[in-house]
Design a protein that fits this description.
Elements lengths: L1 H11 L2 H10 L4 E2 H5 L6 H13 L3 E6 L2 E6 L2 H33 L1
Antiparallel strand pairs: 1-3, 2-3
Length: about 110
């Protein structure tokens, strides 16, 4: 799972790929449609899609001459679950800090 998380977070590190995922959250798109808002070539967009595919975030299929992509959200859920453990850690840490501050103010 750690290797999958590494691939997921590496893919999400790029703003273009995050924008592509946001577009795919609305439905299936061609690689050309994913490239259009970024003023990039088909080849450039295909490289980004390849990174997303290797991370397991996107599935690509051929339909005639088009390459269509769809979001595979399972890996995002795995990343969310991993991040939630740190959310719990920080919330408990902040709760302890708040208790110390309140105690200090009451003195």
């Amino acid at each position: 799972m750690v290797e999958r998380l590494d691939l997921t977070f590496a893919a999400l590190a790029d703003p273009t790929r995050r924008a592509m995922l946001a577009s795919l959250a609305l439905g299936e798109r061609s690689v050309g449609e994913l490239a259009a808002p970024h003023a990039m070539s088909f080849a450039g967009a295909a490289k980004h899609v390849g990174v997303l595919e290797r991370a397991g975030l996107v599935e690509r299929r051929k339909a005639g001459r088009q390459q269509l992509c769809r979001l595979k959200a399972e890996r995002l859920r795995e990343a969310d679950e991993w991040l939630r453990q740190w959310e719990r850690f920080w919330l408990s840490t902040l709760d302890r800090l708040e208790a110390i501050i309140v105690e200090d103010q009451e003195k």
